[in-house]
Amino acid sequence: MINSVNVPVQTVNLNGNVLFATDRVRTNACNCGGSIQHDAGSGLFTLAKPGIYEVNFNANVTAATAGAVAFAIRSNGEAVGGTEMDYTVVTAETYQSISASTLIRVPCGASKTVSVANVSPALQALVKDSNIIVRRVA
């Protein structure tokens, strides 16, 4: 299991990933050979062993201008259905909490990369207090 966070505000470009600076809890203390791999500061999590993984994400989001902001959990670069998180910014820099969770299956002999991406139609987004938990459940 891993719990990664990024508390300060970060700008996430269109199709860019939310970055996670700190791995707050990690069940694989030596940082090698575990089923979930992450480099602090990256937005990518590698699910390296077969199984079913639960991914939970939450953050506060806004934009510098009014408009639609959207994020989604991605698996190997593709948005996972049912995880899109939408917020229409009416007043610039007014934050709204978003969250999503999903299960991802990694088949034998494979690995997958998980991220949370800005899938907004046209806006850069501001993200703060981002939190992700990835755990192997089966």
Topology:
Layout: E1 2-6, E2 10-12, E3 22-26, E4 36-37, E5 45-47, E6 51-62, E7 67-75, E8 78-79, E9 85-89, E10 96-106, E11 112-118, E12 125-136
Antiparallel strand pairs: 1-3, 1-12, 2-12, 4-5, 5-11, 6-10, 6-12, 7-8, 7-9, 7-11
What would you note in describing this structure?
With 138 residues, this protein is an all-beta fold. Helix content is 0%, strand content 55%. The strands form 2 sheets. Strands 1, 2, 3, 6, 10 and 12 form a 6-stranded antiparallel sheet that branches. A hairpin with a 7-residue loop joins β4 (36-37) and β5. The mean pLDDT is 95.
Q: Brief overview, please?
A:
The chain has 138 residues and is mostly beta strands.
Task: Name its key features.
12 strands; about 0% helix; single chain; mainly beta; 6-stranded antiparallel beta sheet; about 55% strand
Strand-residue proportion: over 45%
Helix content: under 10%
Structural class: mainly beta
Q: How many helices?
A: 0
The count of DSSP E runs of length 2 or more, i.e. the number of strands, is 12
The secondary-structure element order is EEEEEEEEEEEE
* Radius of gyration over all CA atoms, rounded: 15 Å
